[in-house]
DNA sequence: TATGAATGAGGGTTCATTCAT
DNA sequence: CATGAATGAACCCTCATTCAT
């Protein structure tokens, strides 16, 4: 059922009726409500699920020997994950509910992971100094909600520009 | 009335009731419906209005002697314009209606203007070559929909990173 | 519309669907909700309306030259009024909402009127001394919710017994 | 399970979910439905059970040497029994189901018992002549549904007034 | 036999749209 | 032309009942 809900949110955004989610899952509306007492509870469950996966993937890269690549790959992969899902993107943008409540706890600490990856990438000289974790988060959310979230090519190009923007100064020769 | 609608969308998002828009405009709900037969027509009118202003501003910069500055300022100003309006940002993201229908005609040809500014900036060496107008559009829309569209600081920092990303290669020394 | 709602509550009790009330009133469900934002607001409006009438009638008797008759007639009339209406009787019995909030203010002070009438009747020797206004209220509510509230004869006989019970001791000769 | 249902109805009224009853009984909802195919069947079973107990108690008093006391005690005890249960009181008031079907058969012939006790009390001069068994029934049901069925003091005072009303004429001196 | 997940009709409420005034 | 009351479809949620395990 979570899969059906994810697909429904992905296809129609957060405003998809419960009825439609139920239809996709091949169950009655009551069954959806039974598992997730409110629609918000359903969003939250999905967002937590997705964030968990993102955090796991991020944590796996934390010890990478190439912190720059680890960071940039994490950025792109995560954007892809969320961009493919209209509802998740809406949710991430804080469209009317409390992300803090959703994403608390170690298993959902995207910011923590992101901070680790960023710091390591900066120490390795792959990302310029002034950048903060909140900047990265803002950019990630922005990319997730680009106009054609289904258009992977457009997304890849956006991410490439942003990556260049993050990398830039460290690559600039010192005498410049 | 357009102003009231913009304010209402900005304050409460796309889901603001027509009744609230009418209240803010000091008119009856019927009057709103008379001018804009459906709610979608109202969005579209607002978007057209905003885009018109953006296009005007862009056209004014088309002849600038500093194409790089013209381009980057246009980028930032436009993002600010749309980001300030939650509802428009949602609408722009394609919340179920046809952007092409909205933005056709010379007065709304944001892509044309953007193309001009981009080409000139590229010719002047301010923006690197591989960038296409669709990339710029995607990045602009993305910036409008960062997590806290009301947070001007976050937005400015995003735009700065992206600007670096667009500029990058031209600044990079040739021997690099 | 109030009339239709009163009739609907009278016929089917508090649990009558809004849809049924709307049907009786010959309007859409939205129209009912428009006038009374929640179902509870509708109960309250009806109860207030009815209580107002009761209070008016009671106040008119307050100056009667025959306090005993005034009191007993008020008792019976009020019981008839509410007994004829299942919903009002439910409401009176406090079936799940706050009567105090409903019946505050001079226009709805049933207890005050009842107290006046009772005291005067007691002073006139028509009602025995130990009786308190809360007893009267309890008895009234009880009568309203007898099993056959539509059966006027049964109600009249109940009221007669209660009246005797209230009168009794004052009629008993002092030497008894 | 009957006990759990009684407690649940008492605590939350007739609208208590079956699920809650099942929870209190420590069984599954299916088990409740198995024993009582519909919710109404459950009410009826409870009412029958209670009425059986009342009838038994009444029958025991039928042969009392003090028919007046027997009658009045039966009246008060029975009211207490039902008043303690909000849901049953509602049900008794005819909240949409057929009391006749419920209370038929010798084991549930509350009217018969009441008639016996009443007749004997009248013959003994403890209750005045004009009173009929239906009056008693109506008064009993009414008392069960006073405004605060949980308020034993209010109930006791109501019963006292009614008892006086029933007794009245026998106590009134003949010359009055 | 006992279970409780699944069902889906039905509840109250909201709101875009219509239309008589 | 402006109005806002009326509409009723659509939403989310509850819950009595069913049935596979």
Describe this structure in words.
Four copies of one chain form a homotetramer. The first copy, chain A, is an all-alpha fold. In chain A, 70% of the residues lie in helices and 0% in strands. Chain A has helices at residues 2-12, 18-25, 29-35, 39-61, 67-83, 86-92, 99-102, 110-123, 133-144, 152-171. The first copy, chain A, is elongated. Chains in contact: A-B, C-D. The A-B interface holds A 13, 92-96, 131-132, 134-135, 137-139, 141-143, 145-148, 154-155, 157-158, 160-169, 171-173, 176 and B 13, 90, 92-96, 99, 131-132, 134-135, 137-139, 141-143, 145-148, 154-155, 157-158, 160-169, 171-173, 176.
Give the terminus-to-terminus CA distance of chain A: 56 Å
Mean pLDDT of chain A: 83
Number of helices of chain A: 10
Q: Give the strand content of chain A.
A: under 5%
Helices and strands of chain A: which structural class? mainly alpha
Assembly type of the chains comes to: homotetramer
Give the overall shape of chain A. elongated
Helical content of chain A (DSSP H or I, runs of 4+): 55-70%
What does the largest sheet of chain A look like?
Answer: none
What is the total tally of β strands of chain A?
A: 0
User: What pattern of helices and strands is seen along the backbone of chain A?
Assistant: HHHHHHHHHH
Largest interface, with counts of residues having CB < 8 Å to the other chain, equals: A-B, 38 and 40 residues
Rg of chain A computed from alpha carbons, rounded to a whole number of angstroms? 18 Å
Low-pLDDT runs of chain A = 170-176
């Amino acid at each position: 059922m979570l899969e059906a809900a994810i697909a429904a949110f992905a296809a129609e955004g957060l405003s998809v009726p419960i009825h439609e989610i139920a239809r996709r899952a091949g169950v009655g509306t009551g069954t959806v409500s039974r598992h997730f007492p409110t629609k918000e509870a359903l969003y939250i469950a999905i967002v937590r699920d997705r964030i968990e996966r993102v955090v796991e993937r991020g944590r796996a890269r934390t010890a990478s020997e190439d912190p720059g690549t680890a960071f940039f790959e994490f950025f792109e992969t995560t954007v892809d994950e969320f961009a493919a899902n209209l509802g998740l993107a809406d949710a991430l943008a804080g469209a009317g509910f409390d992300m803090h409540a959703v994403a608390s706890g170690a298993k959902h600490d995207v910011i923590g992971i992101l901070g680790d990856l960023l710091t390591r990438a900066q120490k390795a000289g792959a990302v310029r100094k002034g950048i903060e974790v909140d900047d990265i988060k803002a950019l990630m959310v922005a990319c997730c909600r680009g106009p054609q979230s289904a258009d992977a090519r457009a997304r890849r190009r956006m991410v490439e520009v942003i990556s260049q923007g993050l990398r830039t100064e460290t690559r600039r020769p010192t005498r410049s």
